[in-house]
Amino acid sequence: MIQLEKYSIGIGDRFAHQAKAQLQACILAAKGGADIIPVWNKSNREHMIIGSEPSSVRAAADAAVNALSWKRPYHVDADHITLQTVDRFIAPSDFFTIDVAAFIGKPAEAADVDRFANRHPELDPGAAEIAAKYLAAVQEAGRIYRRVESAKGSGNFITEVSMDETDAPQTPSELTVILALIADEHIPIQTIAPKFTGRFNKGVDYCGDLDQFSREFEDDIGAIACAVDRYGLPKNLKLSVHSGSDKFSIYAPIRRALDKTGAGVHLKTAGTTWLEELIGLAEAGGAGLALAKEIYADAYAHREALCEPYTAVIAIDPAKLPEPSEVNGWRSDDYVAALRHDPSCPAFNPNFRQLLHVGFKIAAKMGDHYLRMVEACESTISKNVTENLFARHIRPLFL
Ligand SMILES: [Zn+2]
Fold it and tell me: Where in the chain are the domains?
């Protein structure tokens, strides 16, 4: 039985060049006394944009693990897969994030809802109504789980169910019912990704009520502990925080909740490693800086199209985006300061950062031209990738 360890970090590597630099952050964590398991995740959406195959994630992870002699577990996550997209992920992945957010609220059979309510007298009176909202989604998760299970064999992979990419957050009482539904569907989930309260915009800090988030996070942990006891779900079941990178202001509340309850967590980062590639290019100066400027100019020119698929998870004020003509006059330091996520730096520009975050399509279109420059600037890039994961994420959360 493959079991996910207590603390794990989901690392996205859009162009599959930074696995070693990312793993280096887990090695630094181990040296500091924290056992953090790396999970390389890439969604079908990202593969489609970049034109890559899921097997490339496995190849990059294996190569990094061999090169750095990593002896602890590591995993490859088929992120946000559905019944339609799962197949090509099955062989190279050992972690499956089953995304059923699109099925939330779809009508379920009344008889199934009644059966659930009768089987669960321990739940609150409102449980049947909640079950009616989530039953179709959990049944779909069951279909996807069984598709993977029939191909890989039970116990040979880790299962996560994600419901984060939807409009309304799930409350802890909804989570309780969802977990009961999942247990009834016989899905041995090890991580669950609810949508939390507040905004988890890509690549920037959390935006919302911190007290409410803290309460909800702790209550979710309580709901999980209770469901593990009651329904026999895997004992290591834990929360998975999606778009978890850069959410600096919630790391302290999360850490407090983990310390208090002894729970584990999976922090899934949002593919911001690609921004560290840009920072590394800019820092290298010369042709690297020129390419970083070219990518910004192109992203600026296509900003509406680039942002359109992400409106729910970004918040860009177009008036605060610098003109490309201004950026073209920047030195390395100016570009780096505007992009690097250091909220205490006056030059940091979250609008600039978010636009570049969704601008990876531009680099993907450049193909080899981009990758060759990434390889040429490897030393400045890898330093930034490692430092970002370790100092800004792992250290505040786990050390
Ligand atoms: Zn997600």
Answer: 7-271, 273-381
- Using alpha carbons, select from 193, 186, 250, 174 the residue that is nearest to residue 79: 193
Residue 49 tokens, joined: 């944009």
Kindly give the distance from the C-alpha atom of residue 162 to the centroid of ligand 1, in angstroms, as a whole number: 7
* pLDDT (tens digit per residue) in 53-102: 999 999 999 999 999 999 999 999 999 999 999 999 999 999 999 999 99
Å from CA of 194 to ligand 1 middle: 9
H/E run at residue 342: none
Assign domain 7-271 to a CATH class. Answer: alpha beta
User: What is the dihedral sign for C-alpha 217, 218, 222, 228?
Assistant: positive
Number of residues written out for the chain: 399
Where does the chain show beta strands of DSSP type E?
7-11, 37-43, 75-81, 95-99, 158-162, 191-193, 238-241, 265-268
Tell how far the Cα of 70 is from the centroid of ligand 1, in angstroms: 27
- This prediction's pTM: 0.96
Q: Return d(Cα 213, Cα 358) in angstroms, integer.
A: 26
DSSP at 209: -
Pairing, β 7-11 against β 37-43: parallel
Task: Mark out the alpha helices in 153-285 (DSSP H runs).
Answer: 172-184, 210-231, 248-261, 273-284
Query: Which residues have CB atoms below 5 A from the ion given as ligand 1?
Result: 164, 242
